[in-house]
Amino acid sequence: MEFTLPIINNPVDHTKPVRPVRVPEAVETGKKAYIVTFGCQMNELDTQTMYGLLAGLGYEKTYDIEEADLILYNTCSVRENPERKVYGQVHSLKELKEKKPDLIIGISGCMPQSKVERQKLWERLPHVDLIFGTMNIHRLPELITQVQQTGQRVMEVWDEHGDIVEGLPVVREDKLKAFVTIIYGCDYRCSFCIVPQTRGRQRSRRAGYIINEVEQLAAEGYKEVTLLGQTVDAYGKDLGDGTTLASLLWRLNEIDGIERLRFMTSHPRDITDELIDCMRDAEKVMEQLHLPVQSGNDRILKLMGRRYNRRQYLELVEKLRANIPDLTLTTDIIVGFPGETEEEFEDTISLVKEVEYDSAFMFIYSPRPGTGAPNLPDHVPEEVKRERIHRLIEVQNEISARKNAAMVGSVQEVLVEGKNEKEPGMLNGRTRGNKIVTFPGGEELVGRIIPVRITRARTWTLVGEAEVPAVAGTA
Ligand code: SF4
Q1: Scanning 170, 374, 457, 468, which has its CA 20 to 30 A from the CA of 184?
Q2: Which residues line ligand 1 (CB under 6 A)?
Q3: CATH number of the domain to which 180 belongs
Q4: Which pLDDT score is estimated for 24?
């Protein structure tokens, strides 16, 4: 693809870290840690950071919960179901704790950020030794040491975030693709969402730290970086120095070794023309966008506090597609928001048909204590919600299958990620649009970006034939 590098109007700050964290040398203790992760990619990255911090205390990662000396549950509060699972699963660890009295069990993440919930966890799960939140992960080594030295239960949750702590160690399992958080928290107040309470106000990392981290990842052989944030496209708004997600992406686009850049999750209000131009012109920025719509009806969007209407959203999609014709577009949708009528739900169906998303995360509305929506009148009966989501899934599945089928015969640029564990002799990779492609090939192709001709489409994945030699990026 040909492109011209535009002048960066808002050059980003590229200072070296001024407050590096002292990471203790890993010591060998033979101890093992097992972390269960619920929720989004930000939680996944927090888990990888916890493994990094625990390595400094001599804890190695294990995949066998029975042999763990430390079990942590990194929790999610976005929906009710994962919360229930945490109670069930942690409760069932009681027996293991009785067999192994030195076992430390901890709960972290979004659930403890609610004062009511953490009290409940503390009282209902007395065999839990440690409770901490999303804002004091860096305190994990001290908190574990405190439990070990005193033999007492410890609960430390910060309700206010402090400075962003830079330089925490991360143990990444994947050797090709890495997540990098660039903005924490969220300044929107969508009426269904608990995130502003659990993750705090919007705080962007300084660009210099991010660039250093991505340069380090490139030096370690990583090929793909996904920038993370609850509203990743709002990146920089709070820095006050003109830095934007687009200007950051342009800087990252120049880092040798990094072949692919992605970002998620975006709020439709924060997608700027500058960002669209960057997605179109910066070769390493993939033509992929996750753009939650949540509902296709204006009254519901207003009650949700989304700050855009159907027309504005559709205009944005049109502009994106006009500039980036190959865009892979995905979304989040909530079904059965309080007061949603059949006609209002039909508006969501019609929007989905009009936009034709590549795929969608579709959820039944789940009331979250501490948010505004549970106080709204006319909650939709559960069976109506279930019936609606089935209809929506059916519509979206048909669209996803059709869009994948349209790719048969095309040649896609694929980053080869590894062996397909279920199909011997096959490899898995991803297109620029982040679709999974399975194709026959040897392990020597892993880590390379190669052309793959699509021969068959399934609803969620593609099947193809590699057309080596590679088009870009060698192992
Ligand atoms: S933009 Fe809305 S849905 Fe997204 S994290 Fe913020 S409050 Fe939650």
Answers
A1: 374
A2: 186, 188-190, 193, 195-196, 230-231, 267
A3: 3.30.750.210
A4: 53
